Amino acid sequence: MGRFGLSVLLISLLLAALVAPWASLSWWKVLRRCVSIAAALSLWLCIRKFEGRSFRAYGLGAWRGPGGGKRQLLFGLMLGLGTLGLMLGVGLAGGAVRFEVTPDRVRLWWTVLGFVPVAALVSVLEELVFRGVLLQRLMACSTPLAVGLSSACYALVHLKAPELTAETARELGGLFLLGVVLAASYLRTRQLYLAIGLHAGLAYGARINKLVIAFADPSDGWLTGTTRIVDGMVGWAALAGIGGCVLWWTRRRGVTDPGRALSSARR
Length: 267
Hints:
- This protein is an all-alpha fold.
- It is 73% helix and 2% strand.
- The protein is globular and about 55 Å long.
- 35% of the residues are buried.
- The C terminus is likely disordered.
């Protein structure tokens, strides 16, 4: 665990120092992007080179079968996209949001089509890092502690701006809650597929969201949130609803099987 964290820190700082002088972005935004790259490199180094294990041991096990990864992934995708669609419908009906499609059609279609593989790749890498390595390693100490710390790290890495304001505080809270929901998805299935599907659906929807809708009254951000989705009470309620759906679906489908996951993790 310490080796992984140190590797991420050192590679992130090195990449940020190399890129920052040539980038038009702020240091924080450059560092955020470098952390993602560093985490992916560190993940490969720690799991494949230092430990000599496979990614299956961290939650990418059985793909087919009644409780397999394929069904979990599809349910996660439908749940994430369906929740965003419901939020959009409620917002339109209540007048909180309106359609305002960007005039840059090239950017719109490039995002609609091109962000699909990006969302898939990012969700797999981030779930392996936060719910694969970080959460599972910390569970050796305490499961509540593991959920809290992994969700806090996830929130900090995804924070849009480093300044502590009312807006960033709401965003942090929403990101933390999202991390808890994704952690619950792993804990209920002992696999990462459900969390990956949910993560990919929400990430894709949030990116498209920025290009097609506008909020009627930005001062109501505490209630409706912004295009970040998770920084308002409506978004928090939606995340709580997603968490409830995860608990209901895993119980109904009988996909929870800690014993099988623990035995596969030892292999």
